């Protein structure tokens, strides 16, 4: 039933080419326009006794002492026992061409043995890039989606209480070098490289260019990249915006994806199976132990003993045989449903069909 519903959804999405058309911006990215990852180490304060145990997390104690030293408070040699502080790692994605003074979201994750960050506030933390430069500074109250409540004999928790986010919690201090208008070349990179898809994108862009600019503006380099030639007098932003709105039907390879852990089977639209006959049956054996007590008759010599008694039952349900002709996805699904199998049985059949050389598709097992 699950396979029927899943493949029925795939069929409904692929009824016509118009329904399968997507925007260029959803299947290709502009080379060089990407995010950069930044991170930092900081302290969260204001916790209600759910912070790090300083003896188990000495880095938290050292960080707390260093922060207080910078504020002119000397506590060196003092044994700290606070449980309202937690060491955290702060991560964020720096958007491309972001300007100084903008704000971005940051993610907070506990580094020590804190049980919850609920109600905490992140102290000013510098976020650095791979080059070691500081690009943003984060600070603010943390929004935690989970909770963790502990009692003397019971613990109640939901979600992850040791991680959270600060919306607009980081302030951009340094801009990434380079501007969009200064890019020497405009190159589209496909997210799923394919020769047919690259050709269709190039044809759609050139059809638009011939109608609007009376010239060819796209040239394929390989199955992954397409080079764009911006017409004179057109801003790069408007030129890319027009191209990203063009509709293209991407080509997908024939592929079957199987997840044995969850029993999920996803079959692509172009999957075909050569004519094969398939049968599938399961042999189940059940062994039941029912010991009985053997007791001698009255006034008879003997001992009371426990005598083992075993019942063995074997059952092999009648297996159905079906002929699969994979001319299209609908017939393939109909043939698999005739056998009446569960997802695990369908996975076993697909693996056997692939081993027999009848599955004309790539089988991906996760």
From TrEMBL:
<keyword id="KW-0969">Cilium</keyword>
<keyword id="KW-0966">Cell projection</keyword>
<dbReference type="InterPro" id="IPR001782">
    <property type="entry name" value="Flag_FlgI"/>
</dbReference>
<dbReference type="GO" id="GO:0071973">
    <property type="term" value="P:bacterial-type flagellum-dependent cell motility"/>
</dbReference>
<protein>
    <recommendedName>
        <fullName>Flagellar P-ring protein</fullName>
    </recommendedName>
</protein>
<dbReference type="Pfam" id="PF02119">
    <property type="entry name" value="FlgI"/>
</dbReference>
<dbReference type="GO" id="GO:0009428">
    <property type="term" value="C:bacterial-type flagellum basal body, distal rod, P ring"/>
</dbReference>
<keyword id="KW-0574">Periplasm</keyword>
<comment type="function">
    <text>Assembles around the rod to form the L-ring and probably protects the motor/basal body from shearing forces during rotation.</text>
</comment>
<keyword id="KW-0282">Flagellum</keyword>
<comment type="subunit">
    <text>The basal body constitutes a major portion of the flagellar organelle and consists of four rings (L,P,S, and M) mounted on a central rod.</text>
</comment>
<dbReference type="GO" id="GO:0005198">
    <property type="term" value="F:structural molecule activity"/>
</dbReference>
<feature type="signal peptide">
    <location>
        <begin position="1"/>
        <end position="20"/>
    </location>
</feature>
<dbReference type="GO" id="GO:0030288">
    <property type="term" value="C:outer membrane-bounded periplasmic space"/>
</dbReference>
<keyword id="KW-0975">Bacterial flagellum</keyword>
<keyword id="KW-0732">Signal</keyword>
<comment type="similarity">
    <text>Belongs to the FlgI family.</text>
</comment>
């Amino acid at each position: 039933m699950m396979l029927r519903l899943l493949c029925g959804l795939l069929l409904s999405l692929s009824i016509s080419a118009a329904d399968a058309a997507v925007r260029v911006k959803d299947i290709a990215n502009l080379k060089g326009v990407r995010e950069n990852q930044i991170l930092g180490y900081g302290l969260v304060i204001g916790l209600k006794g759910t912070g790090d145990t300083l003896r188990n997390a000495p880095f938290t104690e050292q960080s707390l002492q260093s922060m207080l030293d910078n504020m002119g408070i000397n506590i060196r040699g003092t044994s700290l026992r606070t449980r309202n502080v937690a060491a955290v790692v702060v991560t964020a994605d720096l958007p491309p061409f972001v300007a100084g003074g903008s704000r971005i979201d940051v993610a907070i994750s506990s580094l020590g043995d804190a049980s919850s960050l609920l109600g905490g506030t992140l102290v000013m933390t510098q976020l650095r890039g791979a080059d070691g430069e500081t690009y943003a500074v984060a600070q603010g109250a943390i929004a935690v989606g989970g909770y963790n409540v502990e009692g003397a004999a019971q613990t109640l928790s939901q979600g992850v209480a040791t991680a959270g986010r600060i919306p607009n919690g980081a302030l951009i201090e340094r801009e990434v070098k380079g501007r969009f208008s200064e890019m020497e070349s405009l190159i589209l990179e496909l997210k799923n490289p394919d020769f047919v898809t690259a050709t269709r994108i190039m044809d759609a862009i050139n059809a638009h260019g011939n109608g609007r600019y009376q010239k060819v503006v796209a040239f394929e380099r390989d199955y992954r990249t397409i080079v764009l030639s911006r017409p004179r007098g057109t801003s790069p932003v408007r030129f890319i915006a027009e191209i990203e709105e063009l509709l293209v039907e991407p080509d997908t390879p024939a592929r079957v994806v199987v997840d044995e852990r969850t029993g999920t089977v996803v079959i692509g639209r172009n999957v075909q199976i050569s004519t094969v006959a398939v049968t599938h049956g399961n042999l189940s054996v059940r062994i039941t132990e029912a010991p009985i007590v053997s007791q001698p008759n009255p006034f008879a010599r003997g001992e009371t003993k426990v005598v083992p008694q075993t019942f063995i039952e074997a059952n092999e349900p009648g297996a159905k045989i079906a002929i699969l002709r994979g001319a299209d996805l609908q017939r393939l699904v109909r043939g698999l449903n005739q056998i009446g199998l569960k997802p695990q049985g369908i996975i076993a059949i697909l693996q056997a069909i692939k081993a027999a050389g009848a599955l004309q598709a790539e089988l991906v097992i996760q």
